[in-house]
UniProtKB/TrEMBL annotation:
<keyword id="KW-0067">ATP-binding</keyword>
<dbReference type="InterPro" id="IPR027640">
    <property type="entry name" value="Kinesin-like_fam"/>
</dbReference>
<dbReference type="GO" id="GO:0015630">
    <property type="term" value="C:microtubule cytoskeleton"/>
</dbReference>
<dbReference type="GO" id="GO:0007018">
    <property type="term" value="P:microtubule-based movement"/>
</dbReference>
<protein>
    <recommendedName>
        <fullName>Kinesin motor domain-containing protein</fullName>
    </recommendedName>
</protein>
<feature type="coiled-coil region">
    <location>
        <begin position="103"/>
        <end position="166"/>
    </location>
</feature>
<comment type="similarity">
    <text>Belongs to the TRAFAC class myosin-kinesin ATPase superfamily. Kinesin family.</text>
</comment>
<dbReference type="GO" id="GO:0008017">
    <property type="term" value="F:microtubule binding"/>
</dbReference>
<keyword id="KW-0175">Coiled coil</keyword>
<keyword id="KW-0206">Cytoskeleton</keyword>
<feature type="domain" description="Kinesin motor">
    <location>
        <begin position="173"/>
        <end position="584"/>
    </location>
</feature>
<keyword id="KW-0963">Cytoplasm</keyword>
<keyword id="KW-0505">Motor protein</keyword>
<dbReference type="GO" id="GO:0003777">
    <property type="term" value="F:microtubule motor activity"/>
</dbReference>
<dbReference type="InterPro" id="IPR036961">
    <property type="entry name" value="Kinesin_motor_dom_sf"/>
</dbReference>
<feature type="region of interest" description="Disordered">
    <location>
        <begin position="426"/>
        <end position="481"/>
    </location>
</feature>
<dbReference type="InterPro" id="IPR001752">
    <property type="entry name" value="Kinesin_motor_dom"/>
</dbReference>
Amino acid sequence: MPLFINRDQIFAHQVHLLEHKLRSKEERLLELETENAILHLRLAECLGKLHLGHEEKTKALAHHQHHRNAEKITQSALTKLLSEVQALKQDLSEVFAVYVSFANELEEQSKQLLKKVDQASLTLRDHNGDEVHDLQARVEALEHSLEEEKERCRAERQRRKELHNTLVELRGNIRVHCRVRPVLPIDNIQFSGPGPAPSEEVVYAISDDTVVVNCLKTGMPVQNKIFEFERVHGPEDSQDDVFEDIKPLLTSLLDGYNVCIMAYGQTGSGKTHTMIGSQPLGEHSGTKQEAQQGIIPKAAAELFRLISEKPAESHTVEVSVMEVYNNEVFDLLARDEQGNAVSQQRDVITTSSGTSQVTSLTSEPVFSASEVMQIVSRVLKLRAHCNTLVHTDSSRSHLIVTLTISSKSPNALALARRLQNAKKDMQRSTQREFWSPRCHRANPAARNSPDKLFGSPSNSPCLSPSPSPCPSPGRTTSPTPFRTKLQLVDLAGSECVGISGVSGAALWEVSCINRSLSALSDVLGALAEQRPHVPYRNSKVTHLLQDAIGGDAKLLVMLCVSPTQRFITESLQSLGFGTRARQVQKVLPRRKNNTLKDK
Ligand code: ADP
Ligand code: MG
């Protein structure tokens, strides 16, 4: 243990003790303060209770006073309100009295008015009933007579049509049908110039015999050009509709007439679509495809249908197919020495009977329409085609499909026609000054021999083997077949070089096509004007079709027309061609002068 005590430690100990005392004093102080506060609170509570008692007494007094005052005010206000309510009640009863009197008056007036209306409507009904009845009766009568008129008009139109057809038949007119095709994607070309747009529709089939062309020129009023034909088909007419109007011609075939159906029109106007159809032929035989078939397959089917109604094996049919390309005739059924299909050139000659004939033309016997179409679709691959700006598959040649029908037992009508033709030929030979310039000049032998006078030209019903002399009328019961021809022609399209965009060798093709078509137009012009000279030989196609165009065959021209502004010039040209064709009268002697020469 140390002997002396550290002073610092003592001080520290004392400080510690003092601090301890201080802390306990402070704690006591805190306790006393708390007690003090509690006592204060209690005091305040007691004081508060004393004070509240006094205040409540004063408040109750004031409230009593206030209540008495308010009662006084309310009483006076209530008295005032009561008097006002009584005044209002008074007013209301007055207004109500006015309202009641008004309502009574109104009711009275409306009763009177209703009475008047009833009376008025009663008199009106009595008065007008008869008039309305009369009017109804008149309307019914008018409707009835309108219906009658319509029926009469329909009958008259039908009669007019029949008479027109008879007239056409008697006069030997060329029948012209026209088909306006629909607007197609090929018509929609880019255009950004002034004037009418090229894709604008301007050719319309407005009725079943009238076409209208709107001739549009910038800054000029629209001019309408109207063309009439035997039959006009619009864009909505189907292949069946077109064929329906051609069908009767096929009956004529078995009655001894030669028939020729020729499609004419500008490239892309629908000739091949109309004549052959748009589907590849002979590959399928669905109904839809049949509906798309053109005149050639439909005519073949109709022909075999008509033959099937005749006695079995009484008729035989042969087919030949030619094309005229660059003014040369090609036999599309020819075969080379190995038997391969080749297109061979042939000549057109005028026979001793004055008719045109193709030398060594191949023909194949056929026994059904599908056989005809198999042959046609086979040879179509040999046909000249080319791409132009107008048409991606433009035919560059005139295609002629000929069906020759030989009949072992011609019907009475056919025999009558043969006799008629023979008689006509005889008359021509005895009255040579009245001959048609076309007939028999190239056949002096025929003129001299009465027996040979019955040698019918190929456009008339003739005997096989043609053109050898036919038997005299006395020998009409001979089993020698009686022959008639159905020629179906898909002409190449006329075209404007600028539009079709052809060049090089194709230019020569176009020039040949255009020249042959204008030769056709010249022939029709000469026939229509009954000119002494008909220039058949200016082109192979006219020479070849001479008998169909100028003879007494029934010729139908199917004009095909594009509907848009872009081809308006060609369309007008085609329609003009059709109009000229209608004016041709083929059977009547054109000029009674036997010295005139046919070229
Ligand atoms: P063309 O033989 O006159 O040059 P096409 O017959 O080949 O013309 O027709 C040209 C195009 O127009 C073809 O694609 C054809 O299918 C179409 N066409 C023509 N006529 C019609 C029509 N009436 N309806 C629908 N398409 C048609
Ligand atoms: Mg064509």
